[in-house]
Write a sequence for this structure.
C-alpha cells in the first residue's frame, strides 16, 4: 500500500497481475473510504509492488539530527476535487504538505469552509474559481484552480421495472439469470475492463445457468442482448 501525491492509497496484490486497487478517500471511516477494486491498470504484469518514486514533499524534520539547515516547514497548499452523488456536489480533498494547521476554502460562489476536506453543494452549473489557503506558525500558502459544474436535467429519470435478476453475485462456478416471463431469448456476455469479451452464451426460458469455469477471477461487465440489459458481475474463487 502506498499513499500517492493525489491523496489516494494505492494497493498492489500479492500475485502476478496487471491490476491494482486504490482507496479513494483514506480519511473516511469504514466503507465510506470507497475501495475501488481493479481500478488501476499496469501495462506490464506486476507482483506485490507499486512503481517506485521519490517523495518530493517530505520537508525538513524539525529538531532531528538530519535537519542541519534549520529550515522551517512553510506549508504548501494542494487539493483535488471529485464528483459526489449529484452533478452539483463536489468532494474536495486536501493534499497539502509541510504540517498545515488551518484550512480556508473559498468555493467561488460566496461560500467558504474551514474543514480539511469539505463536500460542497453548488446552486447552479458554471465554472468557479476555488481557492484553498493553508497556514501554520511559519506562514501561509494558497492554491487556486477552476472547477466546472456541469448542467443537469430538471426532470426525474424514468424508472423501468427490471425484467430479469441474476444470482449469485459474486459468482464462483456459475451464474443464474432469471427472467420474469417465459419465452425470453437472449445472448449473455461477460466483458473485462479492456472491453474484451471473455464469455458468450445463448440463453432462453425462464431461468438459465452460465458456466464460469474458464473465467478468471475479477470484475466484469455483463451484457444481455435482445433484452438490452447491463450489469456488473464479480467472479471469485
Amino acid at each position: 500500500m502506498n499513499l500517492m501525491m493525489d491523496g489516494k492509497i494505492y494497493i498492489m496484490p500479492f500475485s502476478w497481475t496487471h491490476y491494482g486497487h486504490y482507496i479513494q478517500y483514506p480519511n473516511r471511516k469504514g466503507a465510506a473510504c470507497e475501495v475501488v477494486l481493479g481500478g488501476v491498470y499496469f501495462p506490464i504484469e506486476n507482483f506485490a509492488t507499486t512503481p517506485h518514486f521519490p517523495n518530493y514533499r517530505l520537508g525538513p524534520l524539525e529538531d532531528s539530527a538530519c535537519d542541519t539547515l534549520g529550515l522551517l516547514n512553510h506549508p504548501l497548499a494542494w487539493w483535488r476535487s471529485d464528483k459526489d452523488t449529484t452533478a452539483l456536489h463536489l468532494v474536495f480533498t486536501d493534499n497539502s504538505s509541510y504540517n498545515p494547521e488551518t484550512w480556508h476554502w473559498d468555493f467561488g460562489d460566496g461560500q467558504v469552509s474551514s474543514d480539511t476536506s469539505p463536500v460542497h453543494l453548488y446552486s447552479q452549473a458554471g465554472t468557479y474559481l476555488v481557492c484553498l489557503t493553508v497556514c501554520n506558525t511559519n506562514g501561509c500558502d494558497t492554491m487556486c484552480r477552476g472547477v466546472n459544474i456541469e448542467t443537469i436535467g430538471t426532470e426525474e429519470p424514468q424508472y423501468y421495472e427490471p425484467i430479469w435478476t441474476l444470482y449469485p453475485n459474486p459468482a464462483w462456478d456459475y451464474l443464474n439469470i432469471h427472467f420474469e416471463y417465459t419465452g425470453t431469448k437472449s445472448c449473455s456476455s461477460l466483458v473485462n475492463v479492456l472491453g474484451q469479451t471473455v464469455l458468450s452464451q445463448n440463453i432462453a426460458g425462464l431461468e438459465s445457468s452460465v458456466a464460469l469455469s474458464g473465467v478468471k477471477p475479477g470484475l466484469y461487465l455483463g451484457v444481455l442482448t435482445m433484452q438490452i440489459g447491463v450489469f456488473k458481475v464479480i467472479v471469485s474463487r
About this structure: The mean pLDDT is 79. The domain at 79-149 is CATH 2.60.40.10 (Immunoglobulin-like). The chain has three domains: 2-47, 79-149, 164-235.
